[in-house]
Amino acid sequence: MTLNGTSAGPERSTRIDWVDYAKGICIVMVVMMHSVLGVEKAAGDTGFMHAFVMFAQPFRMPDFFLISGLFLSVVIDRDWRTYLDRKVLHFAYFYVLWMTIQFGFKAPGFAAESGWRHVRGTLWFIYLLPIFFVVTKLSRNIPPLAIWLIAAALEMAHVGAGWTVIDEFCARFVYFYSGYLFASYVFALSDRSREKPALALAGLVLWTLVNGGLVIADFSHWPLVSLALGFAGACAIIVMGTLLARMQWLNFLRYCGEHSIVIYLAFFLPMAVTRTLLLKTGLIADIGTISLIVTVAGVAGAVVIWRLALALRADFLFERPAAFWIAPKKAAPALQPAE
Question: Angle at which helices 287-311 and 17-43 pack, to 10 degrees?
Fold first, then answer.
């Protein structure tokens, strides 16, 4: 079992190709953000990669959460024991395990430059998802429109309580809930993009100009604008993933999407090691080039760590042991999300 409760190597036919492409794009952008900002902070300078990070800021996490909610309707009716096992205990196991691993590597100094708070911060996605799953199931008797309006208002409020759980819940729940509530529209968008690729490409060009312009003008954080850009960017990534799947291009992105949370858990180590080596040796002077190399190392290195763990029978790093299950395992569904 992998982090999404499905087989570590599912058959291609059981997966939805554009979902994997979309999540692949997002996980690469997440690694890029941490890599670029980490390099720039350590070097005290910025490089050409900074522009890509800023461009992706409005939609990088909204798309991840929207897609995470797409398949919730398939499992939300399960009994509480099974639901909590799949959607809470599952993520809790990996959060505790990998937080401990990250702390262990911090002690010798691998992540000392970033500090403990930054290291722990890379895992907030893991513990926020279970909260979203539980809140959505508990609120099923409340009119969905009321929940959506409250969630949208929380996003636009730009809550800054200083506690990651509160701040990120307010900023991201609307996207997760929208994925759950409007899943049929999301799939319709993908179908339409596959049928009319020229129109889809035109829409992507327009979105690129608008998103980039608002980011450059520093309007992307404004209330309502941030919400609109989050949804627009999420839709753009879905369209982009659909077109890539249609053409079967950039298959490495699909592979990254299939193993997105594996990469999310493990990228911190190769990222930190590569950053430290490049900055201390001075082999490369350009900050942008260093940032790009660190990004590639973070993604590829995480996959290597996963493969090594499987080869060395250290499966517990990426597969939840039977001792940590509280509900019986069931066969994988016909269609699987790329969580």
Answer: 120
Give the residue carrying structure tokens 């100094």.
Answer: 109
Please state, in angstroms and rounded to a whole number, the distance separating the CA atoms of residues 260 and 27. 6
Amino acid at residue number 156: M
Query: Using an 8 Å Cβ cutoff, are 77 and 108 in contact?
Result: no
- The Cβ of residue 79 has, within 10 Å, a number of other Cβ atoms equal to 9
| 202/136 Cα distance (integer angstroms) | 35
- Nearest-angstrom CA–CA distance, 239 and 257: 15
Nearest to 218 by CA among 229, 234, 231, 207: 229
- Looking at residue 328, what DSSP letter applies? -
From the list 308, 305, 310, the residue with the least C-alpha distance to 264 is: 305
Radius of gyration of the chain (CA): 20
24 has which bridge partners?
none
Q: Give the residue carrying structure tokens 């090691």.
A: 273
Identity of the amino acid at 258: E
- With 0.85 as the threshold, say if the pTM is over it: yes
> How far apart (Å, rounded) are the C-alpha atoms in residues 64 and 62?
5
Phi, psi for residue 15 in degrees, rounded to 5: -110, 160
**H/E element holding 43?**
helix 17-43
DSSP assignment string, 163-175: -HHHHHHHHHHHH
Dist CA 196 CA 157 (whole Å): 37
Q: pLDDT band at 120, cuts 50/70/90?
A: low
CA dihedral over 250, 298, 25, 67, signed as positive or negative: positive
pLDDT in tens, 71-81: 999 999 999 99
What's the one-letter identity of residue 257? G
Distances (CA, A) of 193 to 35, 66, 210, 232: 32, 18, 20, 14
Phi, psi of 336 (to 5 degrees): -120, 135
Residue that is written with structure tokens 């996207």 in the block:
175
